[in-house]
Amino acid sequence: MSSVDSTKSADLKVRVEDVESKEQTPLDAHYDLARMIDWRMLPLLGLLYSVALIDRTNLGIARTAGMEEDLRLDIGERYSLASMIYFIPYTLLQIPGNIILRWLGARTWLTICVVGWGFAQLGMAFVTTWGYLSLCRVFLGVFESGFFPSLVFIITTWYKRYEVQKRLAIFYLSSILVGSFSSLLAYGITFLKGKADLNGWQWIFLLEGIFTVLLGILSWLFIPDFPDKATFLNDTQRKVSTLLLSHETIVYPVFQMILDRVEADRGDSIPDAMTWAKLFKHLRDPLLWAFGASILHIYVGKLLTLSLAALMFLASTVPAYAIVFFVTIILRGMGYTEALALLLTAPPGVFAAAVCFFFAWLADRTRHRALWLFVENLICITGLAIAAYSKNDPVRYFGLFLVNAGATSAIPGVLAYSANNITSHTKRSVQTATIIASGGIGGIFATTVFRQKDYPRYVNGLWATMGLQILMLFILGITTLVFRRRNRLRREGKIGPLEGQPAFYYTL
């Protein structure tokens, strides 16, 4: 942390202590305010992300609803390429998106993102070739790239470390639930086939695109911002702090309860200004990229670190993306009709949402992450094996339940695990972007490894996905050993403060 940031942090800590000495209020006493923040923030963010997930992954539903015949997506790998091309800008623009987020503010930036990809979705309703479809998917990836890391970044700044996973799970599972029933909605929309000379798949893109644009406009009015910029709190729920920022004295409101609780928990309630020097410093930090990079490293002219944290998120997103892009296609391959394939996509999502929240509650309750991620990976591996090798279609369908549950639970788990083990706003900004960018690579992997020539069982794709889950089990073992060792050395006084915070210890 720079000397300017240290001065700001010290100044605010003095003010916090001054207020606490006057009020003598326990840091966790404001439960009503905490619930107000939950209700003000999580449902809206969950709805926004559910729409993002639907718009990102409805290609499989549209293919089943007639797009394959109209655009000839059954030729070669056209469908996989059209699905994959989205993830290239989505991956590359993650870090710039989080930098713009702090510059423009959450409300402005997220509104731009939502409205932008809504128009991209609208454009997909009128494409006449798979090439134009791919171009619209590129624009979809451009505007969605800044969205998910921004949501994760915002949520992790409002809560303490052992409150984060439940909130991430609520926001994420709400999107899974809505996304699961999107296939039912799409099935209903397909009955508009022939109206205005549009096919059923075109109506899906048209109506969902219009809804996204309208939701983007409404988000301008209701989107929550960072704690230091929140505008939905009244004067009795605020305090005013003066910070020296860019050689100017700026007075702005900071939410008392959030400020004090986060400061006491991890010491990074103050948003430090992003600079090029900090950006490259964070990108060079092995811990940002790798849980356990001090153990796994190789020399090729200079030290290279293995991106274990990114690999964990990549491993979790591959089965999740495989399910959303290929579940209706896999069900059609089992012999189900188009209508039944669309209807049967909902139950696995509902089951996954329940399992996701259970593990999130358990992880926050026990204050452990790696153990439950290990269990979730075993569930996913079991489901993949059943889906690949069972001769009974209903049993294979049950395997999809397990795959969806394991992968869905692991995604907020990995995000919470990584967010728990860093400090500072600028590092958190870079970290969320790099981790989620690896999810984009997972999307590329999932959309290309499930090849058309492997239809309908996709055994090779299922095995590749299973291999990533096994790799993640190995990574979880490494991170546990490294974090446990560092915590022990810190308690014995053999190393200095972890992450620059005297009371900070890594979450196992």
From TrEMBL:
Organism: Agrocybe chaxingu
Protein name: Major facilitator superfamily (MFS) profile domain-containing protein
Organismal lineage: Eukaryota, Fungi, Dikarya, Basidiomycota, Agaricomycotina
Gene Ontology cellular component terms for the protein in this record: membrane
MF-aspect GO terms: transmembrane transporter activity
Keywords tagged on the record: Membrane, Transmembrane, Transmembrane helix, Transport
Compartment(s): Membrane
Segments forming domain Major facilitator superfamily (MFS) profile: 41-488
Family annotation (InterPro entries): MFS, MFS_dom, MFS_trans_sf
Entry's transmembrane regions: 79-101, 108-132, 138-158, 170-189, 201-223, 303-327, 339-363, 370-389, 395-417, 429-450, 462-483
Main localization category: membrane
Keyword check for DNA-binding: no
Record's bilayer topology term: Multi-pass membrane protein
